[in-house]
Amino acid sequence: MTPQRVTMITLSVLNIAVSREFYLKLGWQEAKGGNDKIAFFKLRGLYLSLYSRDALTSDIGMPIATRTTGAITLATNYESPDAVDAAYDTALKAGAIDVTKPAKTDWGGYSGMIADPDGHLWEYAHNPFWSFDDDGYLTGNA
């Protein structure tokens, strides 16, 4: 078994069509296997799935709205503050909720936050202490 690995992140959504369209407008490529209850987006080494709240509630056997699971944010890191601004603007045009406009941070980076149509929080960040490989994927500390 490989430790420290995530293979799927599933976001519960109220309207699969609206959420699917939002991520497509961000430029994400939908993977095969989706239907009117679930959509898959292949990332490097894992998938992001959007799953209708009704279907997820049925699968897990309990109402999602009555359970507190804690807050979570997802993040996308970029190579520069300008790239953060561009991604942030694209998200707003795709229908994102403006949470925090990109700005310099107290830890030396630059970030802003949006929410998708279901309120899932996404941070768009530039961390000058991290590096990227030739394909633009985060490799860790510079």
UniProtKB/TrEMBL annotation:
Database matches in InterPro entries: Glyas_Bleomycin-R_OHBP_Dase, Glyas_Fos-R_dOase_dom, VOC_core
Domain of life: Bacteria
Pfam families referenced in this protein's UniProt entry, alphabetically: Glyoxalase (PF00903)
Transmembrane segments: none
Stored SUPFAM superfamilies: Glyoxalase/Bleomycin resistance protein/Dihydroxybiphenyl dioxygenase
Domain VOC, first and last residues per copy: 5-127
PROSITE patterns the record matches: VOC
Record protein name field: Glyoxalase
Species in which this protein is naturally found: Neptunicoccus cionae
